[in-house]
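Journal club side-thread
Mid-discussion, someone asked how the predicted structure for our own chain would compare to the paper's figures. Pasting it here so we can look after the session.
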Amino acid sequence: MGPSSARNEQPTDRNPEPDPLGHDPDPEPREECGVFGVWAPGEDVANLTYYGLYALQHRGQEAAGIAVSDGRRMVVFKDLGLVSQVFDEQVLSSLKGHLAVGHCRYSTTGSTTWENAQPTFRTTATGSGIALGHNGNLVNSAELRDEVAAARAEERADRGAIPASTDSDLVAELLAVTAADTGVEEAAMRLLPRVRGAFSLVFADEQTLYAARDPHGVRPLVLGRLERGWVVASETAALDIVGASVVREVEPGELLAIDAGGLRSSRFAAPEPKGCVFEYVYLARPDTSIAGRSVHAARVEIGRRLAEEHPVDADLVIPVPESGTPAAIGYAQGSGIPYGQGLVKNQYVGRTFIQPSQTIRQLGIRLKLNPLRDVIRGKRLVVVDDSIVRGNTQRALVRMLREAGAVEVHVRIASPPVQWPCFYGIDFATRAELVASGLDTEGVRRSIGADTLGYVSVDGMVGASEQPRSRLCTACFTGEYPIPLPEEARLGKHLLEDLAVPENASGAASGDPGPLSVGYGAADALGRP
């Protein structure tokens, strides 16, 4: 097994310019990443991974990468941009092998740089390669960073600085260090119990594909079967696109290993399920199933419950496309008010390498949504959206609908008020920027200019998922964090960039801004794509 690896050596300063919607003052909540892995001798694994990542593109649009092994060497190709921008037929045809790891990224730890694109790659002291993709966010990154520094201090040769600044790179580094003595599988069994937070990992050496899920199962990860191999992916929709049948979910606290000897399962921790309820609300594709429950069906049921909890006299129910559509259908079914399309979404507005002018930025929400005036004029509208984060999008939307002739605008939200930042892989902003953290429902209603405002209850949302509340994480709505958080000085999106040297845990900044003020949208949240 040779240690050969190749990377797409693009200039590291080639950062895409912000897209027009990057200046939208209320970007949607973003999830960190999508992961995909395949072990299938005789199949075109690079193409399968490309299609799998394409199905997971909604989970991350900043960067994409694929690592492929032919049993002797591993090649990694990654770059900033969408999956379709990073890969073409020429690149994919050069990635030959029997196993692959793929990743599409939206950053919640570390900046948007080429180095932080995944899969991240490390070479062990014995010359074997390790490629790793991570979905989620760790809460003990500072502790792991100290562990990496200590391990490097024990080495005789200076391996240079870690070029990336993500929690994922710390895991890959520690895996590589430990695997030199034990092999990758045993290294993972030793390391993963020390990793705290949300992680769905897909990683590989030259021979074996691995998948692991944190003991709480915060982020989804599923196992699928091909005629000549196995697939693991963030969502069942990615299995569908490559023709794989769903076998089961990777269990919380489980490590899977897949190679020529078959599939092996090991437990590195006792399961304590706390799946992210926001996957049902917004993050996952509607054609995905989580814990046996159709995401689309859950969203329709949320809409029905929303109609029961917050009825109103109106003429038409319209969604904010696309994420509000299933709940709007449910609201119409539950209320008996006709469902209609009142907003048209521009499907092609997204990430671009063109710097928008100030004029284009000022178009704001109209770049993304435009009203159907003949449908809206003279109507009392129920407008259904998935969530309110800062409230600026809803404020602009209500104003736009009134200008288009709506006589009443009643806003209904298919999730409870988002009041707390997420530390497990959703890119919300700081608590101070969350509108519902400082205002009650009536205050938010006045802020966005709606005639009425109603959120689904936590119980209604949880009930629609058909999961026991004890098995779900609702921290962003309730502030009840299932995985303990460290002190604030060792949290934050750019923590690892700020830690030039291992930081003393007591080195908190002066002028503490208050409990849980940090988040993973933080300083640049308003300029994110």
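Post-session note: The radius of gyration is 23 Å.
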